[in-house]
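Tutorial, part two.
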Amino acid sequence: MHAYDDHQPFQGDPLKPVWIVDDDRSIRWVLEKALAREGIAYRTFATANEVQQALEQSRPQVLVSDIRMPGESGLALLNEVKQRFPEVPVIIMTAYSDLDSAVAAFQGGAFEYLPKPFDIDHAIALIRRASAEGRPIIGPPTAATEAPDMLGQAPAMQEVFRAIGRLSQSNVTVLITGESGTGKELVARALHRHSTRAGGPFVAINTAAIPKDLLESELFGHERGAFTGAQSARRGRFEQAEGGTLFLDEIGDMPPDLQVRLLRVLSDGEFYRVGGHAPLKSNVRVIAATHQNLDERVRQGLFREDLLHRLNVVRLRLPPLRERLEDIPPLARHFLQKSARDLAVEPKLLSDAALRVLAMFPFPGNVRQLENICHWLTVMAPGARIDVDDLPPELRSAPGRGTGQADGNWQQALDRDLAQALARGERAVGERLQKEFEKTLILRALQHTGGHRMEAAQWLGWGRNTLTRKIQELKLDPDKD
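Running the prediction step on this input gives:
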């Protein structure tokens, strides 16, 4: 019985096959087997050019395309298919998951964005849904040519990328939650940059960083003579953001009286300058952010429930870095390259051992802390290659790392290694990891017993023949009995 036997039958046109285009032969093979198992007709292609030629004769029920391929990219193919056959749902898949490619896929009209490695049952279910619904998200295509401002292979970050893509044609209010340093302002800027307001201003204000008696004037401006020292009229942040986006960071710290004024702007679209008598119209999209639990602050009477409902139209949660361990290596490389550009020096490289220590650090300051560490390493590390001893003291002295050898939780290290291998599409990764695990067991046991195999086998709970066979299979010591 298959995982989706209890689903409705394939609801597309049985005469139109699903088309798969990917230059990776193994991806094509896996999808071919899965589609055949489910009784879904298919055709596979290695390049976008092959698909373009086939489109002259017929069109698919669903097109599943990789982004990065030799020749024309999957995004260019998506654009062409949407122009010629807008009714064809297109699923974009990629192993290089970043914000810009996700947004470009959705804005180009993709039905869904599927980051590799993917669960094959999930992919088949997605193809079924695309065939049944056939409702692509239509929008103007955009090219993702700039360096990505956000990176993330972790599933939680992929959900954030999807949300930004889906919100790109909307003006709804968004509430971003997450710990300090997770990149909430980056998400706000991405929401603005990929929105219909991208040509307007993006104005950010940290409500917790401005004294209470000045915050009202900062937000709404003031008229001349409104208070002592107000010698001329001044535009506030709402006026400065007119036609664009206003980002209100740390909204949970806003004083109660200003919460009332903000609620009025969000509900009525009007506000008054301090000391003013004429209402001013506001055409601003508000994006708010907080590291606090606003629901709890509402229960404590510190935050207005009606304002929370106004802000919480769409809520995006940014995961802490400790929940996305697989993203630490690419983020570290990105920040090292960025620091090198800023300082006009050659970028430095992290050794595997140094990366293991980095990936096991809890990062209470999240992505911002990792960026600061990479900047410190660019300035302070003596050589071009960064090893464990070059890392800042707080990393080397963290619990479980006193020896500088990343001796902490080995299950976490194994999980991280597996996640990275799956992300780069490594096949038979379980076999490789099992061999490495057994090799470590054998070598350590033999070292403990001075090379006596019978005693080493007893310590490991194996028979002597089992140990001898594994030594031969792993080619650890083929000449010694």
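The longest strand covers residues 285-290. In part three we will examine how such features are distributed along the chain.
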